[in-house]
Design brief:
The protein is of the alpha+beta class and 256 residues long. It contains seven helices and ten strands. Helix 5 packs across helix 7. The protein is globular, with a radius of gyration of 21 Å.
Length: 256
Amino acid sequence: MNIESKLKQIRTSRKRRVVLPFHPMPIGGIDVSDELFAGVMIFIKALFKRLKVQQFDIEITHWGEIFLVEPSRGMFIQLSVHLRVSDVDVKRVKLDLKSDNYRVYQDECFAHESLCVSLRVNRSGTQWRRFPLDVTSVSFDNVMATIIKAMHLNVANLTPTVKHELSRDIHTIDVDDVVALIRYGAAKLGPDSQFASIISGDRDFLYVKGFTFDGTQLRFSSFNLRQYQYCLSPQSMKIIKMLIPDAGGTIVEFVS
């Protein structure tokens, strides 16, 4: 495991990271402001070094998701560093709701966020565990020891087999990823963009069966077997290559 190459992967993937407001689940990896990023990377480098001693492997996906592979049982543990609403604010809301059916809060009520490290074994039914992180600390020894101990305990308490396993390979790109990228392109480039035209006014885009990229040609079919074809502009191709670097040079297909 080359630590410097792993850190470079994180920095590179940060440039092409796509976070959509309607995404049902948070994306793992490092999701912090530019001001916090440098300090978080110091912690990540120290953690990766400690994990190397503990014989963990590290996998980083195209979008910068970080997975730690526990050595004794080979289970993947998703790692995330992010800001979250203060636990004090959350407890206050829960207490308020015991006496009222609903409450209306202003945005400033949840303005205080704390930096934390979150971990979850990449299996169905597992929960996130969170640990506070202070990037101004002179030493990360205590928080790293706590995190690694928690990972070992979480894995040890899981049964070797499950009824519903997460079958998708963490490096796989599928139809849903392409749909998300086209929607991201429509939001980024605006209502007059080619992507906005592709997704507007036709519910078939909600049920895409597959995509084919052939040079600058985009073809896709819906589940009612209607066929669509577009010649992508250079601006659109730039967005597509964020996810599919080979697009434009070879035929690439995605089938659901």
